[in-house]
Amino acid sequence: MIQATRRNLLRGGLAAALPLPALAQAEPWPSRPVRIVVPYAPGGQGDITGRLLADQLTQRLGKSFFVENRAGANGVIGTDIVAKARPDGLTIGVVVASHVLQRALMPNLPYDPVADFVPVTMPARTQMVMVCTPGLPVRSVAEFVAHAKARPGQLAYKSAGAGSNSHLFGAWFCEATGIEMTHVPYRGSGDSMNHLVSGLVHLGFDTLPAVQDLIVNGQLRLLAAGGPDRSPQFPDVPTVAEAGVAGFAANSWSMVLAPKDTPAAIIDRMNAEMVAVLRLPALVERFTRMGAVPMANSPAEALALLRAEEAQYAALIARLGIVLG
Questions:
Q1: Of the four listed, 180, 210, 231, 260, which is most buried by Cβ atoms within 10 Å?
Q2: Rounded distance, CA 73 to CA 99, Å?
Q3: Using CA atoms, how far apart are residues 29 and 63, in angstroms rounded to an integer?
Q4: Whole-angstrom distance, CA of residue 274 vs CA of residue 311
């Protein structure tokens, strides 16, 4: 009896001495409900991806996965929540490609977009498209450019926020074509749609999943695919580059991130479960129908992309002279 008690005390002492990540690694994942922080407003690419994952993982694992939208500052507010969360796999985030722009745009960013996170997987790569309000008398990129040049400063392009990838692509398009437009930032892609449909703003670069139904219903006019390839959903519509803007290519992606120091065992388990649901025929068909290409890659592959695209877009931002506070 005395020996058994001593053994129990020793076990308790060893457990108390273990650091938090080691304890988290010993727990089965998910041990409790999982919060998926989407640092953008509802309706955009990150939100759609987060909700698809939450639904499927809840069904697959029998634990609750729920989306929490924490929009603001082009994703910085919600992403910072993920960066500072306990590294136990119970708070994760879904970001989009604008995540890799932040260090170049905001010198006082409260986290490192690469070093403070562990990528789990990139669910899908998503093409961006160039859309305009249907009230404009234009049906091609060339006609839009001519219309804008005749009205310098009178047209506006919208974005999902200052420093978002839609802001970057809009500024890049203006520079490449020599037109002058006003940038109007919103809190997210979904927040801007009514104004684009009604004509309060005139142009936008959006992910195809966010605008496809509006295009089909005639509420927005598709002028071009962002590139580098045409959209399978609209194969007769050229890319911006094919329409005469050489070198222009706009696409996006979604990525699941966990806080740094999340144990490798939890990252591997999350990756395995997410890859499994992302490869379900129903989800593959859903992403494809929306204009996204399912990826479901490894943590190492996701990290390599994160690093490469941060370097690529930092050079573009420097050339365009875009700086935020």
A1: 210
A2: 11
A3: 10
A4: 27
Peptide bond into 228 cis (omega under 30): yes
Q: Give the span between the Cα atoms of 244 and 162, in whole angstroms.
A: 27
Q: Which of 171, 109, 145, 305 is nearest to 223 (CA)?
A: 145
Q: Is the Cβ–Cβ distance between 36 and 67 less than 8 Å?
A: yes
Per-residue pLDDT for 11 more than 80?
Answer: no
Q: pLDDT: is 30 or 232 the higher one?
A: 30
- Dihedral sign for Cα 190, 129, 322, 144, please: negative
Q: How would you class 165 by CB atoms within 10 Å of its CB: exposed for 0-12, middle for 13-18, buried for 19 or more?
A: buried
Secondary structure in 3-state letters for 67-93: EEECCCHHHHHHHHHHHCCCCCCCEEE
pLDDT reading at 157 higher than 70: yes
At residue 162, the pLDDT reads: 83
Using alpha carbons only, give the angle 110, 35, 52 rounded to the nearest 5 degrees. Answer: 110
DSSP state of 219: S
Number of helical (H) and strand (E) elements in the chain, helices listed first: 12, 10
Task: Work out the widest C-alpha separation in the chain, in whole angstroms.
Answer: 92
- Among residues 88, 138, 68, 77, which one has the least CA distance to residue 111? 77
Q: Can you list the domains of the chain with their CATH numbers?
A: 2-126+253-320 (3.40.190.150), 127-251 (3.40.190.10)
Amino acid at 92: I
Number of residues that this document lists for the chain: 325
* pTM attached to this predicted model: 0.77
Query: Residue 206's CB: how many other CB atoms inside 10 A?
Result: 31
Strand partners, 294: 124
User: What is d(CA 249, CA 241) in angstroms, rounded to the nearest whole number?
Assistant: 7
**pLDDT tens digits along 161-175:** 888 889 999 999 999
